[in-house]
Amino acid sequence: MSINEDAYDVIVVGSGGGLVGAYVAAARGLRTLVVEKTDRVGGTVAYSGAGLWFPGSAPLSRAGLGADIEEARSYLRAVVDDPSREGLQDAYLAAGRRLIDELEQNTWFRSFVHGPVPDYYASRPGSSPTGHTVFPPPVEVAELGERRALVRDPLPTERFGFDEGPLLSGGRALIGRALSAFLETGHGELRLSTALESLVVEDGRVVGIEAVSEGERVRLRAARGVLLAAGGFERDRELREAHQWPLTGEWSDGAPANTGDALRAGIAVGADTDLLDEAWFVPGLVHPDGLPIFHTGTRGGIWVNGAGERFVNETSPYDQAGHEIFRRHVATGVRHIPCHWVFDQRQLDRDGIGWPPATPPVEEWLASGALRKADTLEELARLIDVPFDALDRTVEEFNGYAVTGVDERFHRGETPWDQMFQYVVGFPADPRQNFPAKPSPEWPNPLLLPIDQAPFYAATIVPSDIGTKGGLRIDTHARVLRPDGSPIDGLYATGNTAAAMSGRVYPGAGTPIGSSLAFGYLAVLDMAGATD
Question: Domains of the chain by range and CATH?
Answer without folding.
Answer: 5-50+146-277+469-527 (3.50.50.60), 282-465 (3.90.700.10)
